[in-house]
Amino acid sequence: MDDSFRPIAARPPPVRVVGRLAWLRRNLFASLPNALATVLLLSLLAWLAAKGLDWGVLQAVFAPDADRCQAARGLGACWGVVVEKGTFILLGRYPQAQVWRPLVATLCLLAPVLASCNPRFWKPWLPLLWVAGLGIFYVLMAGGMLGLAPVPTDQWGGLPLTILLSVVSMTLAFPIAVLVALGRRSNLPAIRTLCIVYIELIRGVPLISVLFMASFMLPLFMPVGKSPDVLIRVIVGITLFAAAYMAEIVRGGLQTIGRGQVEAAESIGLTWWQGQRKIVLPQALAAVVPSIMNNFIALFKDTSLVTIVSLYELTGALSLALGSDPNWRPFKIEAYVFIAAIYFACCFAMSRYSLRVERRLDRSRLR
Predict the structure, then answer these.
(1) β-bridge mates for residue 2, sequence order
(2) In this structure, what DSSP letter does residue 219 have?
(3) Whether the Cβ atoms of residue 301 and residue 236 lie closer than 8 Å to each other
(4) What is the per-residue DSSP string for 277-309?
(5) Using CA atoms, how far apart are residues 208 and 210, in angstroms rounded to an integer?
(6) pLDDT tens string 13-56
(7) 268-297 pLDDT, tens per residue?
(8) Backbone angles phi, psi at 99, to 5 degrees
(9) Burial (0-12, 13-18, 19+ Cβ within 10 Å), 342
């Protein structure tokens, strides 16, 4: 054997770069300052979780007993206010003897929404499902037919009203936004100027101003007794407001599409509308899915502003439920936590659906 041969000592295995431990090491404990910050934040979260568990569960009062809740003030939460006022918060001033109607109506309105989120239901009958859902919602909520007692729109409220305003406004705002975005990029000066004026005018004022104008100022320009219902005016105002913001989002997506795409569509004989519908818009909308969903989420939360025109959706119904009862008024924090959980659940669901759509589009691009 050659005396110059020297065996190399065994080296340690490489550091694992995948898995949960590798993720923790890379993101939370990469350095000493990083590790100290992680430990401090985890300690703070653990302390807050312990306090929240003690306040919200261990010391909480779940029975609708105002006296017990008063005795537990400062020590634990009073979830009894949700039990006592939950129906009023969720359904507003709708007649208590007819509470099944808004519940069934809301489910019928959500059915086409959920069906539209699944590509398997993108069939020719889907628009008919939308018409049926909206029609059943109106019949059940308004009544006055099929033996149902009439209920005016000013008594609609709570979660059904929030969902109605969100769904209808989002559905109507999207096609308007696409048309306005295309119009702003038009070569026709009159159409382009009209779209620019609409977008800048609406985006230059807050939603409260739009609602105020739609509810109080518009009837002044209408013949006496000919003004549309306040609910219709509010839906129109929210729709136009949302469409202006969404139009700019769509225009940003259109700007990502090169001129070559349009020229390619023209070279194979497609008209301008066919090229936009089959080539340009699908790519443009796919590029701005996160922004569109962000606009939807913001619109869903902005529906709480309709209380300014005496339409009491979820947050407005809460104010009515507690403002008229001094026994439960001190426990508004628990009630706000309840509706915050509802808003979070809805917004989180929309956010997760947006991520699902993005992943599906990413798979299609890789093919």
Answers:
(1) none
(2) G
(3) no
(4) IIIIHHHHHHHTHHHHHHHHHHHHHHGGGGGGG
(5) 5
(6) 766 666 777 778 777 888 888 889 999 999 999 999 999 999 98
(7) 888 888 888 888 888 888 888 888 899 999
(8) -65, -20
(9) middle
Closest by CA to 312, choosing from 8, 124, 92, is 92
Rounded Cα distance, 226 and 182, in Å: 34
Query: Among candidates 246, 247, 239, which has minimal Cα distance to 181?
Result: 247
Supply the pLDDT for residue 33.
87
3-state secondary structure of 99: coil
Q: Decide: helix, strand or coil at residue 147.
A: coil
Whole-model pTM: value is 0.85
Query: In the chain, where are the structural domains located?
Result: 91-151, 156-257+288-366
Query: 216: which 2 tokens?
Result: 């109080």
Q: Nearest to residue 98, comparing CAs of 166, 45, 160, 183?
A: 160
DSSP lists the bridge partners of residue 313 as 158
Question: How far apart (Å, rounded) are the C-alpha atoms in residues 28 and 295?
Answer: 32
From 153, 148, 108, 147, select the one nearest 131 (Cα to Cα): 108
Q: What value, to the nearest 5°, has the Cα angle with vertex 360 and ends 355 and 362?
A: 95
Cβ–Cβ under 8 Å, residues 203 and 243 = no
In CATH terms, 156-257+288-366 corresponds, of 3.30.420.10, 2.60.120.200, 1.10.3720.10, 1.10.10.10, to 1.10.3720.10
Which of the pair, 3 or 76, is modelled with greater confidence? 76
**What percent of the chain clears pLDDT 90, i.e. is strictly above it?**
37
Query: Is residue 185 within 8 Å of 250, Cβ to Cβ?
Result: no
Q: What angle do CA 90, 292, 228 make, to 5 degrees?
A: 55
Burial of 101 (0-12, 13-18, 19+ CB in 10 A): buried
Instruction: Give the torsion through C-alpha atoms of 185, 191, 192, 198, to 10 deg.
Output: -110
Contact (CB, 8 A) for 301 and 344: no
Query: What's the pLDDT tens digit per position in 183-205?
Result: 998 888 899 999 999 999 998 88
Backbone angles phi, psi at 2, to 5 degrees: -65, 125
- Based on the number of CB atoms within 10 Å of its own CB, is 135 exposed (0-12), middle (13-18) or buried (19 or more)? exposed
78, 334 in Cβ contact below 8 A? yes
